[in-house]
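To illustrate the input format used throughout this study, we show a single complete record. The first block contains the structure-token representation of the backbone; no residue identities are included at this stage. The design step must infer an amino acid for every position from geometry alone.
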């Protein structure tokens, strides 16, 4: 009899203890709040079964006298029960105008669902998602509605699988594809990208006419999509969506890789440039080859059919033949600067003061010979067989002026060493000997530089001698004073 009453007394004790402690906080080294689910009577309990709610935490509130409503709950439901095994989930619910509603779940496999009670991934969210920080992980397509048209998007980037036909794209081997919608918000227009077929990427922009209106799809071109006439250079042809440089078409320029044509697709095979039509040049023109004006050039560099007039600079890279028998004031008349890179033949029998008269600037881009020098021209630009006179000559040296003599690191040769060098070589150190000057000539600029170097060295020797003389005079005066 006592054995049967003891379990009942124990149950009554714990029930009384729980009623007194239900409003108190759990405390201690390991505080716990345990909900214990079993079936059957308290004396002879039976195991819980799959589908049983094994515990619920509720938050209730009195909304009116006699009216108590649930605000939120956390409950756990058993999925599988066996000896030594229990798997269960956790469901989070909140209440709204329609009452209590399940919002999120953590399954027994650790999958988290928000807005769905049957998640298939570690985190599955039904509805829009926003994060203010970085996002790491994979992004999946929404493939539940492959045929619906795009609806509204707000401040998000959204991946969806869509049907090409429903989006208004052309037929393709692959009926479906993926769209990425970028919706920055803040009054901006949304932009979509589509891929999935074998025809590349497509894009379109939200139409300003409405939130769900879209402009026509445009293909993002690649090198395989840009075509045109072979050899024809492209040009921008017109505006597209406000961008004047968005479309390409043929220009008047043609280039086959060897010849260039302007206004023609059949340039002359013997010319680098062929111009079909009138040509105007408002600047300098340089021709490094034959040029024909009005006719095809033959052997001469420049051939003109008819009168020619140059009101600016003219550069001729070859021979220039001028009618020497023409009854004009001079064989060659130029109204501006003239640069000649080859021979210039002027009537030597003309009754003028000189064979060549230039009433303006003259430039010779090459070797110029005056008279008939006996020596063969070398690496000089001007040869004069005779004397030359000038009011002033400026020589611009390539190297440095010999002020380096006054630098502390300069090694000044002692006079004894200079005397020994002169005794042996019969000329100053650093100065070319007479035989070399007789053979190669004299460089005025280089000689001026060498002479200045020797003058500066001489000044240093004089300054040193003066110092020695003063030291000797001081020493001599001291000796005289000591004898007296």
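Output of the design step:
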């Amino acid at each position: 009899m006592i054995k049967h009453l003891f379990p009942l007394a124990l149950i009554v004790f714990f029930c009384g203890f729980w009623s007194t402690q239900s409003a108190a906080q759990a405390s201690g080294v390991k505080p716990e709040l345990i909900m214990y689910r079993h079936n059957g009577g308290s004396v002879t309990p039976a195991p819980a079964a799959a589908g049983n709610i094994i515990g619920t935490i509720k938050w209730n509130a009195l909304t009116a006298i006699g009216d108590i409503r649930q605000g939120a709950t956390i409950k756990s439901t058993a999925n599988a029960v066996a000896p030594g095994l229990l798997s269960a989930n956790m469901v989070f619910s909140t209440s709204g105008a329609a009452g209590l509603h399940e919002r999120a779940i953590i399954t027994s496999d650790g999958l988290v669902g928000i807005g769905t009670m049957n998640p298939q991934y570690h985190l599955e969210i039904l509805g829009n998602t926003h994060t203010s920080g970085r996002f790491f992980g994979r992004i999946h397509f929404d493939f539940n509605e492959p045929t619906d048209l795009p609806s509204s998007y707000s401040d998000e980037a959204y991946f969806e699988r869509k049907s090409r036909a429903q989006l208004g794209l052309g037929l393709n081997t692959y009926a479906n594809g993926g769209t990425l919608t970028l919706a920055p918000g803040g009054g901006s227009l949304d932009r979509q990208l589509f891929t999935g077929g074998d025809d590349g990427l497509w894009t379109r922009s939200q139409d300003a006419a409405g939130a769900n209106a879209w402009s026509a799809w445009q293909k993002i071109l690649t090198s395989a999509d840009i075509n045109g006439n072979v050899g024809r250079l492209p040009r921008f042809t017109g505006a597209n969506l406000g961008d004047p440089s968005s479309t390409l078409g043929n220009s008047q320029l043609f280039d086959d890789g060897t010849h260039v044509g302007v206004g023609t697709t059949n340039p002359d095979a013997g010319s680098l440039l062929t111009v079909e039509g009138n040509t105007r040049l408002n600047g300098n023109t340089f021709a490094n080859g034959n040029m024909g004006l009005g006719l095809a050039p033959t052997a001469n560099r420049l051939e003109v059919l008819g009168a020619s007039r140059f009101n600016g600079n003219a550069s001729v890279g070859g021979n220039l033949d001028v009618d020497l028998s023409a009854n004009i004031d001079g064989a060659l008349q130029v109204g501006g600067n003239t640069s000649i890179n080859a021979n210039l033949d002027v009537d030597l029998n003309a009754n003028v003061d000189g064979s060549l008269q230039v009433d303006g600037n003259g430039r010779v881009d090459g070797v110029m010979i005056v008279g008939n020098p006996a020596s063969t021209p070398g690496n000089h630009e001007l040869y004069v067989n005779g004397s030359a006179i000038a009011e002033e000559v400026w020589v611009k040296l390539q190297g440095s002026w010999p002020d380096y003599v006054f630098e502390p690191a300069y090694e000044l040769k002692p006079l004894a060493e200079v005397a020994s060098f002169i005794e042996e070589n019969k000329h100053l150190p650093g100065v070319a000997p007479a035989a070399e000057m007789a053979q190669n000539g004299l460089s005025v600029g280089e000689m001026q530089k060498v002479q200045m170097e020797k003058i500066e060295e001489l000044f240093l020797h004089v300054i040193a001698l003066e110092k020695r003389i003063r030291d000797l005079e001081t020493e001599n005066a001291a000796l005289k004073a000591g004898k007296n």
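Structural context for interpreting the output: The chain has a mean pLDDT of 77. The chain has five helices and 25 strands.
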